[in-house]
Amino acid sequence: MTNLKGRSCSPETWKPLDVTDSRANIGLLILARVNRSRGEATKSLWNAENGRAIFSAVMSLKKFHLISRMIRFDDHSSRASRRSKDKLAAVRVI
């Protein structure tokens, strides 16, 4: 679903996302939480001087923001019918 969203929103610049990029994005989100980065600006995590080196080693800030904007885990067209039975339908398959 993420690649469909990316192609529809940024057809000229979107490059298909693979499993590695998806896992890296989710891993960075988890790492940010483990490091108690709540409320900290995302940009500061990638800061060359006082940020955390692991973030920039995994992917660029620009790519992280792009994936975070486009990431989708379900089929939007069938969400309403699935959600009437299951409130976690949007993320159940994960």
Per DSSP, what share of the residues sits in E-state strands of 2 or more residues? Answer: under 5%
Return the domain count: 1
Pattern of helices and strands:
HHHHHH
Binned, the helix content reads: 40-55%
Q: Tell me the structural class.
A: mainly alpha
Tally the beta strands.
0
* Low-pLDDT runs: none
Average pLDDT score: 81
Note the total helix count: 6
End-to-end Cα distance: 13 Å
Tell me, briefly, the overall form: globular
Q: Using only CA atoms, what is the Rg? A: 15 Å
Can you summarize the main beta sheet? none
InterPro entries: PGBD
Pfam families: DDE_Tnp_1_7 (PF13843)
Protein name: PiggyBac transposable element-derived protein domain-containing protein
Please provide a written account of the structure:
This protein is an all-alpha fold and 94 residues long. The chain has one domain (2-85). 54% of the residues lie in helices and 0% in strands. The protein is built from 6 helices and no strands. The longest helix is centred in the N-terminal third of the chain and has 16 residues, at 19-34. The protein starts with a helix and ends in a 9-residue tail after the last helix. InterPro entries: PGBD. This is PiggyBac transposable element-derived protein domain-containing protein. It comes from Trichinella nativa.
